[in-house]
Amino acid sequence: MQAIIPLNLPKTELTLTRKDNVIFVNCLIRKKKIILTPEEWVRQHYINFLSSHLQYPLSFISVEKELNYFGLKKRWDIVVFDNLFEPIILVECKAPNIKLNQEALKQVFTYQNKLNCEFIVLSNGIEHFQWQVDQLKKTIIEVSQIPIFSSSE
């Protein structure tokens, strides 16, 4: 991995280890060592932000699961579920050096077409875009932040 760069997310205490010149991070969700790529750096920081700052229980957060999209196998980065196990927040993470452009938007909205989350986040750790989806009105509104967890949801 390139040099670890500071992100525009709260500081996160991560357990890093090195083996044969490869750096690993202990995933906060998967509870195993994952190769520390720039994207994984962002993913782990965003998981911590969801858990520590927005109070979403780690047990409600799922990481890198596969979905089938018109016969294509895709992997989303982070999905947060509500008390009824319905997906409510979709987070797509990019490496800090990746621009959050039309291609990144297309990718996150492809996943959204399958998951139908209320909130969508696109982040490279430096820039973050958040939207709220109104399924009834079929509208998407940019919001300044996703809400803090509420156990009544």
Key attributes of the depicted protein:
153 residues, alpha+beta, six-stranded mixed sheet, three-stranded antiparallel sheet, 9 strands, 20% helix, globular
Biggest beta sheet summary: 6 strands, mixed
Gap from first CA to last CA: 39 Å
Shape: globular
- Approximately how much beta-strand content do the residues carry? 35-45%
Counted beta strands: 9
Based on helices, strands and strand pairing, what is the structural class?
alpha+beta
User: Over all CA atoms, what is the radius of gyration?
Assistant: 15 Å
Order of secondary-structure elements:
EEEHEEEHEEE
Tell me which oligomeric state these chains represent.
Answer: single chain
Helix count? 2
Low-confidence stretches: none
Share in helix: 10-25%
User: Averaged pLDDT, please?
Assistant: 91
Q: Largest sheet, order of strands side by side? A: 4-5-6-7-8-9
Provide an overview of this structure.
It is built from two helices and nine strands; from the N terminus they run βββαβββαβββ. By secondary structure, the chain is of the alpha+beta class. Strand 4 and strand 5 form a beta hairpin. The protein has a six-stranded mixed sheet with strand order 4-5-6-7-8-9, with helices on both faces. A three-stranded antiparallel sheet has the order 1-2-3, with no helix packed on it. The chain starts with 15 loop residues before the first strand and ends in a 10-residue tail after the last strand. Helix content is 20%, strand content 36%.
